Structure prediction request, 290 residues.
Amino acid sequence: MRLMIFGAGFSGLAIARELAGECVSAGGTTRSHERFTALEDAGLTPFIFEGQSLLDDLVVATRETTHLVMSISPDAAGDPLLQLFSEGLRTSMPHLEWIGYLSTVGVYGDHGGAWVDEDTPCRPKSRRSIARLAAEEGWTRLAAEAGTPLAIIRLSGIYGPGRNALRTMQQGKARRLIKPGQVFNRIHVSDIGGATALLARQRLGGIYNVTDDNPAPPQDVVSEAARLIGVEPPAEIDFETAELSPMARSFYGENKRVSNARIKQAGYGFLYPDYHAGLAALYAEGSWQD
Prediction:
């Protein structure tokens, strides 16, 4: 396997830690030289990619790539790689065997708290989710033209070391917003790495929800974090009267329970099947502050 991860950030590095050790070569992109050490620590050869063009060293590396992971969010102009590879993937990556595209469960839109799965029609509401769905469609076309399996990996709310309710609680930023009936799914970043690695190793295509077993009210996660670190949870705040940014409020405009049955059927067993397990592990390891 010759792996290239475009956008080796929080999720991309988790994927690298799962796969880099079994690769003939493994590379990842970042916008900043300051992040090179983080990529190297995860087993990646770092490359600069700022979204407009591929530098010469990255062109050479992509020509040898067999497994591509795309983890860069669309910007106002859309998905940057779709534009760069519009002439076809085989021209730039003649040895490509598998593509993984990291998307979001936000593409399903609002379903009033009902269960959704990969066959549920997408009806995104937010601009960012609409852009994600357009990117999914673009990658589907490119992959079909290249005859390459494409795994669309739809992620729920990501947490892990340094990015979690325990840390938010410690920093005094946690809020228990109450909106009756509201639930969210979550996913530990290590499970993103594990599930993506499984799909890559088996070169599996299709759409997969990579999310936990337990869609739950957000205030319950805050309460569990408070319990673990031994403090009182913050007071409840009515969502309707809370002071929130437009983006924060928009997250609460979508309510659904997301099924992860398909990735389990593919053979993946979750390390952290719910937020209880994930937060408890972060606390026990001490990695929640990293």
Q: What stands out?
A: The chain has a mean pLDDT of 96. The longest helix spans residues 127-146. The chain has two domains: 2-158+185-210, 165-184+216-256+272-289. The radius of gyration is 19 Å.
